[in-house]
Amino acid sequence: MIDVVWPSSPPATARQQVQNCLGSLNSRLSDWGHTQTVQRHGSHYKISVSDKSVDERLFRSECEAAARLARNGDPTGASMRLRHALNLWHGDALEDIGSDQLAGEATRLEEIRMQVLEQLVDWEFTEGRYQEMIPDLRLWSETYPHNEHLHGRLAEALHRASRTSDALKVLRQLQQRLDRELGIKPGPAILNLEAQLHCPGQTSAPDSPISLETLQDICTTLTGLTETIRSMIRNTPTQRTPDFHSYRIDEGCRLN
To answer: Reduced to 3 states, what is the DSSP secondary structure of residue 11?
Structure first.
């Protein structure tokens, strides 16, 4: 504990200060009604608490429950559990502890938080809640200005809400920020999305399904093309009629 609080040059009173702080902590825990207190075992200290009393454990429990709901085909319920898990956060991990030794732990917790946030957005999109997600995505994109996944999802949501110009603006600002602040270019996902938004007639909207009517139209067109080719072959007597079966096109399409 001394090494964590004073990574270099601890004061002569370091041991006494740690003991005084732990004694104060025990008094406060008792005042708050906690039966568990910090116990000393030789040169070590230990406190036993339930999972519901530790933020990270409760967060992980909610995330695991969300994953089970998603596996059981309930993305809506899964999204709700993830939102509850994210609402447990208040500020950044260990933001009021300036310890170099705990910096890696804080980074680990923030990475987990980001993964859960991105998963929430993906599940919400699975349910088609694009326009409803725009306010949240605006906030999260500002909170994490270099996160390409969140910016891409915001651009996609704006595009689906018939706000393609705003979507392109989001991507352009992201590229400028990455270049100015980090000296890098966005990944292929952002570049591909930008190309799709610039040329909507050449590429379909992201994740847009093909309707049954469209498939039927394609089949009708192919059937008509087959008959046209047959007619051209029959009406060309000056050339050797090729073996049509070598170039056979099925006469019709059938949708099951």
So the answer is: coil
- 46 DSSP β-pair partners: 39
Q: Using N-to-C axis directions, what is the helix angle for 75-86 and 55-71, rounded to 10°?
A: 170
pTM exceeding the 0.90 threshold for the entire prediction: no
Cα–Cα distance between 72 and 66 in angstroms, integer? 10
Residue-wise pLDDT for 50-91, tens only, equals: 788 788 899 999 999 999 999 999 999 999 999 999 999 988
Who contacts 79 (Cβ-Cβ below 8 Å, separation ≥6)? Answer: 66, 120, 123, 124, 127
- Torsion angle in degrees (nearest 10) through CA of 185, 188, 191, 196: 180
First to last CA, the chain: 68
Per-residue pLDDT tens over the stretch 164-215: 999 999 999 999 999 999 999 999 999 999 999 988 655 444 444 555 656 6
